[in-house]
Amino acid sequence: MNLTDLIGYGAAVVAGLVIGLAGGGGSILTVPIFVYLFQIPPVLATSYSLFVVGSTSLVGSISYALKKQVDFTVTAAFAVPSFFSVFLTRRLLVPAIPDPLFHFGSVSLPKDEAILYFFAFVMILAAQAMIRQPNLTQSTPGRPRLGLLALDGLGVGVLTGTIGAGGGFLIVPMLVLLAGLPIRRAVATSVLIIAVNSFVGFSGDLHRRDLDWSFLLEFTAFSICGILLGIYLARFVSPVYLKRGFGSLVLFVAVYMLLKEINKS
């Protein structure tokens, strides 16, 4: 195992750690880790990311469920419509994206590069949401707005299917604002939603013959260690302050990705 691999597996632990602490955000690092540290093609990297995020979040959600911190009614309202959008996105939308995405004279944009540019754009939006997020320490009392949760679930499903990230940076605020969940319960519930969404998305890629299961399981094991550590540390760390700090890291990685892709062009 060389230095780059060690850094990559260390980053896997960090990604799992953040999911355990904040209910999302860490998954958005998995695609850049696969692409830039392990030299995996972007489309395949999104498939790997879905499996890693799904497995890691599933372990975390079991831990949260045993502590009775997961709201299963809200999970169903959000996740069921998301199931359909994430599966259809992986099975139909992503394969249908032309390669190159466009071609004009001597200028063209390959599919892989287009996905990375879109991913970097989403990372910037995620970083902004995490850094400038509203005060979510207080839940909004009242009856959960399940219709709005379902619409949000559809949108998050498309995003998850396209870029291979769980969308926790969008899910947690919606669970607080639309479902009235306290922040820690929203974090626990979001981890289950991310797990199911990611596995549904990955199921749309099971037909691929280029999946390296040995590497994938190895990487996932490190990420699972991270989420277990994150769940333990969550008792001592505020998710709100953590996400602000992590948002700065996500912004840095997004800028790095953009500069890297522009220099390649």
- The whole-number mean of residue pLDDT values reads 81
The geometry reads as globular
Instruction: Output the strand order for the largest sheet.
Output: 1-2
Number of beta strands = 2
Quaternary structure type: single chain
Radius of gyration: 18 Å
DSSP helix count?
A: 10
The amount of beta strand, in percent, is under 5%
First and last CA, distance: 31 Å
Q: Briefly note the structural class of the backbone.
A: mainly alpha
| Sheet with the most strands, sense and barrel status | 2 strands, antiparallel
Count of all domains: 1
The low-confidence parts are none
Work out the helicity level.
over 70%
Order of helices and strands: HHHHEEHHHHHH
Protein name: Probable membrane transporter protein
Main location: membrane
Organism: Larkinella insperata
Membrane topology: Multi-pass membrane protein
Q: If you had to describe this structure to a student in words, what would you say it looks like?
A:
The protein is an all-alpha fold. It has one domain. The chain is built from 10 helices and 2 strands; from the N terminus they run ααααββαααααα. A two-stranded antiparallel sheet has the order 1-2. A hairpin with a 2-residue loop joins β1 and β2. α2 packs antiparallel against α3, α3 packs across α9 and α4 runs parallel beside α6. The model has no long low-confidence stretch (mean pLDDT 81).
